[in-house]
Amino acid sequence: MVTEKQHIEAELIPILEQVYDPEIPVLSVLDMGVVRSAVIESDIAKIKITPTYSGCPAMDVIGDDIRKALKQKGYESEIELILSPAWTTDWITPKGRKALEAFGIAAPLDPEADKDALLGNKKIVKCTHCGSTNTKLISQFGSTACKALFKCNDCNEPFDYFKCLK
Ligand SMILES: [Zn+2]
């Protein structure tokens, strides 16, 4: 799979690191991998973002949040949506995956394993509370369409699993 290389200007990184995914307040738009490029051209910050899940209402919010964060630092900005190549959960950074788990959302598996997990074929999704893989799928859709709801058979706690998306 070809993943377009991210190009993010160094001075914009600290600003974008402060913009969080509205649904997952511990994950910055950089860790989420939605910012494809961020450059300054003739005093305007030009940001290209790729929506995570198509139709995810969070994307409008993310665009606005990025604009606001840049404005606060004195940058005018232009936000452009890039739909191709489509965002994949592979773009979540290792730091982002850790943050997800710490927040109580199981990080996405690879696509094959993801399918098995969502079809209930295999027990591979780890409980975010106790780490057990003795978990079961409760619903394909968790608190949002991007997540599935699992329940741990060992500690009995429910948790969200961030679905893999290619
Ligand atoms: Zn558990």
Structural write-up:
It is built from 5 helices and 10 strands; from the N terminus they run E-H-E-E-H-E-E-H-E-H-E-H-E-E-E. By secondary structure, the protein is of the alpha/beta class. The strands form 3 sheets. A 4-stranded mixed β-sheet has the order 1-4-5-6. The protein has a 4-stranded mixed β-sheet with strand order 7-10-9-8. The longest helix is centred in the middle third of the chain and has 15 residues, at about 60-70. It starts with 6 loop residues before the first strand and ends with a strand. Bound molecules: zinc ion (ZN). Zinc ion binds near residues 129, 130, 152 and 157. Zinc ion (ZN) binds near residues 155 and 157.
Considering the chains and any ligands shown, give keywords for the structure.
single chain; 166 residues; alpha/beta; four-stranded mixed β-sheet; 28% strand; binds zinc ion
- Poorly predicted parts: none
Q: Mean pLDDT score, rounded?
A: 88
Structural shape: elongated
Query: What helical percentage do the residues reach?
Result: 10-25%
Distance between the termini: 10 Å
List the helices and strands and how they pair.
Elements: E1 7-8, H1 13-16, E2 20-21, E3 24-28, H2 29-32, E4 35-41, E5 44-49, H3 58-72, E6 76-81, H4 94-102, E7 105-106, H5 111-118, E8 135-139, E9 147-152, E10 158-162
Parallel strand pairs: 1-4, 5-6, 7-10
Antiparallel strand pairs: 2-3, 4-5, 8-9, 9-10
Characterize this entry briefly.
By secondary structure, the protein is of the alpha/beta class.
